[in-house]
Amino acid sequence: MRAFDFAAPHDVAGALDLAGGSSAFLAGGTTLVDLMKLEVMTPEQVIDINRLPLRGVRQEPDGLRFGALERMEDAARHPDVAGRYPVISQALLLSASPQLRNMASLGGNLLQRTRCGYFRDVTTPCNKRAPGSGCPALHGDNRGHAVLGTSDSCVATHPSDLAVALVALDASVRLRGADGERTVPLADFYLRPGDTPHQENVLRLGELVTEIVVPDLPWAANSAYVKVRDRQSYEFALASAAVAVDLRDGRVRDARVAVGGVGTVPWRLPAVEAALRAGESHEAAAALAAEGARPLAGNAFKVTLAQRAILRALAELAERR
Question: Which of 1, 50, 10, 41 is nearest to 23 (CA)?
Fold first, then answer.
């Protein structure tokens, strides 16, 4: 780890005043500190934002609001989250160990970097870490990599479980920077790699995530998150599915479906949703999750795995009725 300056402002304005091109915000630190130790990230200044008033969970008429510094464990156990949006609670509880969930913030989870081994190994090329250096995963060890949203420059998988659930529910993030505040749908917040995989989201220099907003969706109480991984404890998804279904009189009136572990960004599946609304069988709808997939030599199994994760989530919801 390289030497750095440290600051701990008391308010958002103070944090933004300190932010610059060589600075990094520190919340729970469960990603940033690891990457600093590996020298994947080498900020000259670390700005501790834990004193900022950006916590809390509030159910309001227009939906659910999370402060960006709310800890994952607290958010998962909040009665409004567990009762009204179980897909969010389940995604959080499946995200990491209890120790990490007690430290990690919601905003930090949404901004965590990929778990691609090439990205984290500074002795290897990586277009995400060093633009133009290459992507060894294309022809190397790619079992855990993406099959959706990939490019010839990057096939790294987005790691956040929470982001998958939030994208399925049309959540937005509120951002604050030197130019003021703005709200961005989470589905538009993340960028597919294309030719610029080092640009992972639309955050501007020095901008801070302050709040997460989930629109009011009464039938989101009928939702589930399924995560398939190599081991049960503290492992990232090989494939996951966030599903919410409005089921009335035996008919699917509406649906929200997104998958994780298989895309370079959290991957919403409007074709699957439309098929469910049209009365197609679960199997026929889930089959559409493969549209646009570009499997590599080591990860073709992920296409089927994502489809089965969707089916399992739908089956869990059907059993609740």
Answer: 41
